[in-house]
Write a structure and sequence with these properties.
The chain is an alpha/beta fold. The protein has 7 helices and 11 strands. The chain has a single domain, classed as 3-Layer(aba) Sandwich (Rossmann fold), CATH 3.40.50.880. Strand 8 (about 125), helix 5 and strand 9 form a beta-alpha-beta unit. Helix 1 runs parallel beside helix 6 (about 165-175) and helix 6 (about 165-175) packs antiparallel against helix 7.
Length: about 200
């Protein structure tokens, strides 16, 4: 089994479960299986800690500009995405990392950043139910799918709000490593997907 790198973008006011849920899925899959199928790390626009929702301080492993190439790029959401919609340097960095990645996953309003970076045109996408209209405005050439836990376009996967990132991450583990690896990871986490 090939070891893939998984990079998770962090920023101020990122929703905690948006990044921590996928982090746990890929990290647990890596711990439970030999050889480890994933190596997970975090990235941010600049150096130093970020302050996630509700004050959680997190120290990213790398700056986006000097991070190792990601096989799987995860862009979480949260209220902090709104301030980043005009950050062209960050959006360019996301687009560049996405071009090199095998898969790109957005969670919640992370889809807004993918839209602004030009990564959703011509695709189907979902996001948190409270920002579906914002996504429609940002991505007029994208088919917005309300009510889906996640939408898989092949290279680009978008997940609905918060806990849906866990479902999408387990789906990716299943795609890349097989359903047994995904099921064992979910069982260890005592996680059962919603119907």
């Amino acid at each position: 089994m090939t070891c893939r790198t998984v990079a998770i973008l962090l920023f101020d006011e990122v929703e905690v479960l948006d990044f921590a849920g996928p982090f746990e899925v890929f990290a647990v899959a890596g711990e439970l299986h030999e050889p480890a199928p994933f190596r997970v790390y975090t990235i941010a626009a600049g150096p130093g800690p970020i302050r996630a929702r509700n004050g959680l301080s997190v120290n990213p492993d790398y700056r986006l500009s000097d991070a190792p190439r990601a096989d799987v790029l995860i862009v979480p959401g949260g209220i902090g995405t709104r301030a980043l919609l005009g950050d062209t340097d960050l959006l360019d960095g996301i687009a560049a990392a996405a071009r090199q990645a095998e898969l790109v996953l957005s969670v919640c309003s992370g889809a807004l950043l993918l839209a602004r970076a030009g990564l959703l045109a011509g695709l189907r996408a979902t996001t948190h139910h409270e920002v579906l209209d914002v996504l429609r405005e940002l991505a007029p050439a994208t088919e917005i799918v309300a009510g889906a836990r996640y939408v898989d376009n092949g290279r680009v996967i978008t997940a609905a709000g918060i806990s849906a990132g866990i479902d999408a991450s387990l789906h990716i583990v299943g795609r890349l490593c097989g359903e047994q690896v995904s099921a064992r990871t979910a069982t260890y986490m005592e996680y059962r997907s919603l119907p």
